[in-house]
Structures are given as structure tokens and as C-alpha cells.
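G., before I forget:
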Amino acid sequence: MNKTLILVVEDDKPVQNLMTTTLKAHDYRYLTAMNGETAILEASSHNPDIILLDLGLPDMDGIEVIRKIRTWSNVPIIIISARSEDTDKVEALDAGADDYLTKPFSVEELLARLRATERRMAVGQTEPISSSIFVNGKLRIDYSAGCAFLEDEELHLTPIEYKLLCLLAKNLGKVLTHTYITQNIWGHSWENDVASLRVFMATLRKKLDKNTDGAQYIQTHVGIGYRMTRIE
Amino acid sequence: MNKTLILVVEDDKPVQNLMTTTLKAHDYRYLTAMNGETAILEASSHNPDIILLDLGLPDMDGIEVIRKIRTWSNVPIIIISARSEDTDKVEALDAGADDYLTKPFSVEELLARLRATERRMAVGQTEPISSSIFVNGKLRIDYSAGCAFLEDEELHLTPIEYKLLCLLAKNLGKVLTHTYITQNIWGHSWENDVASLRVFMATLRKKLDKNTDGAQYIQTHVGIGYRMTRIE
DNA sequence: AATACTTTTTCCAAGATTTTAACACAATAT
DNA sequence: ATATTGTGTTAAAATCTTGGAAAAAGTATT
């Protein structure tokens, strides 16, 4: 097997150097990023095995970085942060982080946690090779960039429309119930949510089916819910 | 899915109580052990989903417990220890632990780490691809996608028709009484329901037997009910 | 504060599904 | 053979669901 590739996201140069020299000394390959945007870019283009992420980045909240990456990947993310409050840890872990270390951290502990993470990965070595780009017919979704295209033309989608589209795309071919969809988007399922859902479906369809000849991306299953069908 | 079962290994009664009441309040099932020997016994006999392990046990070193359990199981082990030295953490993690919390710990953090662990476990077990697909002759039902096919052509079924088809399919070869069927579909069994049932059977048959030469998926058993027969 | 944009609510015609009713025919019992 | 009961089929009626317009409410931006 190949050497483990680690993406180090840290804007403080000295700390970053400490980490990279340590990694190099212990036979890891690594990439670096100094801010959230490049972190997401590197993560989507190089598919690292593990990500070490500092929460205090200059351009965006680290939590947002976790959320973005989790939209397409299950790569282990270990947070390394100066914030030691419980609430910070809880928020990061619930956003999708796998582990949380507070600075100043012990290099030995970091290495041990890396080994533990590697060991765990080796167990379930299935890795469905999730790409950060989804394609179906003329529709294309770039999860890492957070935008969708219809034959090279970018779709202007509102946040909920985008979420909805991703949900349907991730379950291509499956019929999703109203309840499942509303649960995923609003976190609950009240009477009115289904009415809202219908409106969003209508606008989404208007945007999607604008350019396609007859093709129907979203199908209704009366009394059940909706699904995205495979095209071509 | 079932509630997560957690084995709590802790010899200090008050701490153990704190943990178990917390777990109970958050909808976990749990087992307890006060020493290493019973911990290993419980782990092997009940196959918990996660183990919370205190390193300071009366009868043996917690590290030994980790090693023993790791000889046969990859169950996630989260250490909860008073020892906060790096070397302790490194030793435990390298012995096979998945995470390490030092006392006194925040209950919220523990819960967040449990959620993170559960999430990680759930990743690997996504859809063994088959299992949720039923096949009989030219008929195919994809339960997880919620749709049915007759020789690659999708059947357009209303919710009740689909339910009915699934009910028959799941009891392939068995005769189902009218009462059993109506109970399953409407939750009750009134006089009129059997009349409705006949109508649904008719439409279902029309859709099913359209494409098959002579084959009869659904058989009538006069005075009793219906059954789906195995084809080919 | 004004503006643009997004989300939610309300409504109803159009559409789809389910139920009911009617009748011919098949099976069974007397 | 005849009566009785059960079944398949069709069509209309009743009911429920959906799409989309339009307005109201809520947010973000300038």
C-alpha cells in the first residue's frame, strides 16, 4: 500500500512547519493549505487520506470547511484548534469531524491519533471513491465548489434549492418520501413543509428543465415523494 | 436500526452512575463492568457497539484490556482516564484504542465523540447493493429505490398497488388471506375493503401480465385469498 | 431605509388515486 | 339443475394530491 497522504490546513507558518517536518520524518506524504478555500480545493483535487484542520482560518470558519467537505467525502478530519471550549468541540464533532486536539498539542499524541485513524481506515477499506463531481445527463454538480451546471451554463440556485438538488442527486434513482426530504432539509416534517417543498420542486424544475428537450430530471410519485431519474 | 449498545467499564461507582444515567437519558442501551475481567467477558458475550473504558482498573491494566479485546474485535474503544500524560495516551492509542478523554471530562464532549464514532461506524455499512432487490421471473422490485420493473421496463404503480405487490412478493409462494392483506394495507378489514382489493388485484394483474406470455404472477384461491407464484 | 432576494404561506384548478356501485360470470353447495 | 356465494371487470363518483401563481413574511445587501 501507498504512503498515507495528509492535508495540513494551518495558517500559522511555524506550526505548519512543525507539523510537516514531523509528518515527513514519520514517512507520511503531505499537502498544505493556508486557508479554507484552498483547503477545499486541495481536498477535492487530491483526495487525501486524512485531513488535519485548524479551525482558526483567515477566510472562513473551520466548521464551514468541515461541512463543505462532508457534502462529498468521508475522509477522516482531525481538528487541531486553540479553542478548548466544550461547545467548540461539540460543534466541530457534530459538523463531521472525527477527532479534536487542542493546541498546544503533543507531537507524540498527534502521531498516535494518526496511527489510530489509519488503523480504523484499514478495517473498513471499502472507500466508495466518492467524487466531488456529480454528473447526470446535462446536469453537473460540483460539490466542492457548491454549484450546479446545466450544460456548462451555471444554474443560479438558492441555498434550499441547492440542498434539495444534492439530496436528489445523492439518491439518484431512489424515490425519496416527503418526510425524508423535509427531515433532511428542515430537520423536521410539519404539514406546511410539504407545501413549501412543492414550491421548491416547481422552481427547481423550472430551472432544470429549461434547457433539456423533454428530459425530466425530477419525477413525482404521487402520494409518496420525488426522485431524480438517471438520464441517457 | 437498533439502539446503540455501550459497555461502560469503570470501577468508580459515582462516575459509572453519571455515565449510565447520561447514556440512558440520550437513548443508548448500556452494560457495565467494574473490572477488566468482567469487561472482557461482557465484551465477548454481548458484542457492544462501543466500549467506554477507564484505564485505572483494580484487577488489571486497562491497556491489557484493550489488547485482549483487539485480539478478536474491532469494536470502537474510547478511553476515559485520569492519566493525562502523553505517554499514556500514546500507549493506549497504539494498543488499539480509538479515542482518549481525560477526566474530568465534559458530558457534552463525551456525547459528541460517541456520535462521531457512531457516524463513522455507519459509513462502511451502506447498502450491500443486492439484498434489497427482489426477483421473480421477469418481475424485479427494488425496495430501496421504491420501484418495480418488468423486464427492464418500469411499472408505474400507485402507492397501494406497490404495497400490495411488495406484500405478495415478500410472501412468495404463500397464500395470503383477504383479511391478512387488508389488515396490512388499510390497517383494518371491513366488508368493502375486500371489494377494493379485487379492483386493485385486477389493475395489478393488468400491469403485470401485460408483458409475460401466459405466466400468471398472482393466483386466486377462491374463498381464501391470493398468492404470488414462483416463476421459472 | 430602501432594495433585492429568498422563504413561507395560501389558494385552487388540474390531475391522480381510491372507493363505490353495478353486472356478468365462475365456483360451490344444496 | 338451481340457488348461493365469490370473483373479475368496468366505469363513474368521491376523495385526495399536486403544480404553480401570487402574496406575504423574512433576510441580506447596499
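Chain A has eight helices and twelve strands. Chain A has a mean pLDDT of 92.

More on Monday.
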